[in-house]
Specification:
The protein is an alpha+beta fold. The chain has two domains: 156 residues, Ribosomal Protein S5, domain 2; 113 residues, GHMP kinase, C-terminal domain (Alpha-Beta Plaits). Helix content is 34%, strand content 30%. The chain is built from ten helices and twelve strands. The strands form two sheets. Strands 1, 2, 3, 4, 5, 6, 8 and 12 form an eight-stranded mixed sheet that branches. A four-stranded antiparallel sheet has the order 9-10-7-11. A hairpin with a 3-residue loop joins strand 5 and strand 6. 46% of the residues are buried. The model has no long low-confidence stretch (mean pLDDT 94).
């Protein structure tokens, strides 16, 4: 079974607190976009989970989110002695804030639920996803959602209106733990962009939505390459531009494909570029080749 695991962007990201266990609480609007990894899952005769990936530097054991997702699924369903191979072809950039690992895990959960005819409801898959990582519950649900707590509270919100997105991943990157360590040096933001964004999405005005994008990491990290990409996007007519997640990928919202492609030409040499559309789901079946 081949699956597409779709990336995400954060239209807004507020940091609302820090729990005693060290985890930060968030209030964010995430949206699925048409950049994806390909995940292939197969039953094999030899018991155990075997994971393969086209990026040699990524772990292929319990440190991998897709591996853990399969483990939790088998435990939840009482499946023992089963052999499974997971092949991941990565196209979503790493250390980008685009949720690549989380998307892979979510696709595995959906795929195994179908493959083993387990019949787990979406709520159960969200619970399993929360055990794997903070962004996995959103990727399980997909589309556009407001996510709170440490990511486990997921609520559907209106989708972006018809538009095009340019995504640029600059060479500079930062690990999520390092990003949170930096943000702890600043007081919590009083601005609450997420509540406003939910209302803006309901209104459906792309220009106003673009004006409402905001990211607390973007405000505090102040990466020079991110600043420059945002400047180019805004000069090229983006209705809004912001870093996604804890970075370092930047997205811009454009009303037309022509405007988006013109922006991409101006961003040549500043990072890996992607042209994308907003999606209503976090995964899909990939055509067999």
């Amino acid at each position: 079974m081949k699956l597409k695991a779709y990336a995400k962007i954060n239209l807004t990201l507020d940091i609302t607190g820090r729990r005693e266990d060290g985890y930060h609480t968030l209030d964010t609007v995430m949206h699925s976009v048409s950049v994806w990894d390909e995940v292939e899952i197969k039953r094999i005769n030899k018991p155990g989970i075997r994971l393969f990936c086209n990026r040699e530097y990524l772990p292929v054991d319990t440190k991998n989110t897709a591996f853990r997702a399969a483990q939790y699924f088998f435990e939840r369903c009482g499946i023992t002695g089963q052999g499974l191979s997971i092949h991941i072809r990565k196209y979503i950039p790493s250390r980008a804030g685009m949720g690549g690992g989380s998307a892979d895990a979510a696709a595995v959960l959906h795929g195994l639920n179908q493959m083993f005819r387990a019949g787990l409801p979406l709520e159960a898959l969200v619970e399993l996803g929360a055990k794997v990582g903070a962004d996995v519950p959103f990727c399980v649900v997909g589309g556009a959602c407001r996510c709170q707590g440490i990511g486990e509270q997921v609520e559907k919100v209106p989708l972006l209106p018809e538009c095009w997105l340019v995504l640029c991943k600059p060479p500079a990157g930062m690990s999520t733990p390092r990003a949170y360590a930096l943000i702890d040096q600043f007081p919590l933001s009083r601005a609450r962009a997420t509540e406003k964004m939910v209302s803006l999405l309901a209104g459906g005005d792309l220009r106003r939505i673009g004006e409402g994008v905001a990211n607390r990491f973007d405000e505090t990290m102040k990466l020079q390459q991110v600043r420059e990409i945002k400047r180019v996007m805004q000069a090229a007519g983006a209705f809004g531009a912001s870093m996604t997640g804890s970075g370092s990928a930047v997205f811009g919202l454009f009303p037309t494909e022509e405007a988006a492609r013109a922006c991409m030409q101006q961003l040549e040499g500043k990072g890996r570029l992607y042209l994308a559309r907003p999606l209503d789901r976090g995964w899909d079946y990939a055509p067999e080749k």
